[in-house]
Amino acid sequence: MSYLKKADILEYITDAFVALDTDWRFTYVNGKAAEILKRDPEYLLGRHIWTEFHEGIGQPFYKACSRAAKEQVSIHIEEYYPPHDMWFEGNIYPSEDGLSIFFRDITERKKTEEELRQSEEKYRSLVDNNQDGIFIIQDARLQFVNESFARICGYTVKEVIGKDFRDMVAPEDLGMVMSYYSRRQAGENVPKEYEFGLLHRDGKTRIIVNVNVGIINYRAALQPWGR
Q1: How many domains does the structure of the chain reveal?
Q2: Other CB atoms within 10 A of residue 100 CB
Q3: Do 28 and 67 share a domain, yes or no?
Q4: What is the CATH number of the domain that holds 148?
Q5: 215 in a domain, yes or no?
Q6: What is the Cα–Cα distance from 104 to 40, expressed in whole angstroms?
Q7: Taking the model in full, what pTM does it have?
Q8: What's the Cα-to-Cα distance from 82 to each of 58, 86, 151, 195, 205, rounded to whole Å?
Q9: Domain extent for 166
Q10: Which residue, of 109, 138, 156, is where some domain finishes?
Q11: pLDDT in single tens digits along all 227 residues of the chain
């Protein structure tokens, strides 16, 4: 493939791309890289990357490039770059001519992930500290319970996770509960709120609970949960 065709391809790809020679000087900078680096491509050609971007010395990207060049290994990196207040994802490929580096700005993705993490932590805290018992069932097994549910049944959270929910339902109510469970998953209209008996850890004490059941997306499967 001719140099011009390769250059055309590198200009059309969505990733930023730069090539460095063995003296750490730019030999190619595509338009996307120039946009992220805030430099004209022609200006960067022939310039030493760590002279032009000296603030990057010592950062994870600098270390990854140094390792790739020294050990001749390809490196994938996903790091925050403080000098540009940017998260980026990159792949560094060594060759006898230097380094080829593909990278992209993933700052918005990271911000979204962080917002989701904070939201999940807040939600988790509300659920864990709720005085009502909350549980999630998947394939008839308890996949999540809060402290209140475990305490009601005489267990710790760790002990109850993974238990077959059918073993915790009073025998006389098991048929009704599992019928609602199966029919709800099949899309039938069944009561969302009802009472049944839960068995305490001692296997004898029957605890009457009122549940409010709904459908949530949990681990890529729609499952009912109760409170």
Answers
A1: 2
A2: 19
A3: yes
A4: 3.30.450.20
A5: yes
A6: 17
A7: 0.55
A8: 11, 7, 46, 56, 59
A9: 130-226
A10: 109
A11: 444 445 555 666 779 999 999 999 999 999 999 999 999 999 999 999 999 999 999 999 999 999 999 999 999 999 998 888 899 999 999 999 999 999 999 999 998 888 878 877 776 776 777 788 888 888 889 988 888 999 999 999 999 999 999 999 999 999 999 999 889 888 899 899 999 999 999 988 889 999 988 877 665 333 344 44
